[in-house]
Specification:
alpha+beta; 5-stranded antiparallel sheet
Length: 342
Amino acid sequence: MQHKKVGIIVLILTLMAVSYYLGTLQGTQSDAESEEPTSFAASTIPSEELSPEKSETPPINTPITVSTETSTEASPTEIQTSSTTRVSEVDGMEIIFVEAGEFLMGSADLDAQVAYDNGVAYPEVPIHTVSLESYWIDKTEVTNSQYALCVADGACDPPSLNTDYIGRDYYPDPAFGDYPVTYVNWHMAHDYCAWAGRRLPTEAEWEKAARGTDARRYPWGSSPITADLANFCDVNCPKDHANPNYNDGCAVTAPVGSFPEGASPYGVLDMAGNVWEWTASIPMPYPYNPNDGREEEGGYQYIWRGGTWSNGTWWLRSTIRYRSIPEYWYNNLGFRCAMSDS
């Protein structure tokens, strides 16, 4: 009789485990169906893609030294407030210090390879070691009010459109002053950073600031996504692929710094979701080489980083790469600046 009871308990536990597994699988599939992997600048993807190395366990290569110095960087005009933060005298941006050293760049995720094979995103493999000099990076994305200072100073062109995705007077309305500026192309972002005494970050600088040195999946780590960590296409999102399982409180963009729980290891904010961000780097296959970010002007395309409010959870990974021609602008594309350590 005792053996029969044990057998019944084992059977019940087995059925519960199978049920849980199927429920998890169904949830994952539902989440994947909520993504919008081809919604951004699809027309800018060249027909000829560079093929990445294909391996289920991509190798970690020897360190590559990447120079962060650029000949076009203006002299910084910052006030030193601590050993790890600065505040710009020009636009009031808080800037975060990132120390020199190695970090792991790229992803070993098989789904990243699949996305590349399907023409959805730019390749993130193989994962490899990159060494960077120390540098500084903006704590948040550049805001409407900050960008307006550059426009008023005659150094920047106004955004290409003033309204946001849902038709609000986004750029000119002071109520949206602390929201990320959008509808700016690469040249406009480049001009702003030069005016502010900074420059666009290289792709490697952006990724290290976003994930640190431990190869984490997201800025906050590798723990699952929750609605208090980032702004993405949740139940409020006006897109067909809106995910009803999350409520981050935002339909489109959010004020910068709205998700402090999603900060990177360095305390940099908004590096997952809200808006895509321009970088100084042209698209190149991994492993990266010392030319990262040197092509400040004249590139056929430039890399975006960070995901956006209008995409689903897959696009929040710190390794995600997208790109377009420098003339491209849209309602989910902004930027942040960086500067070399001096």
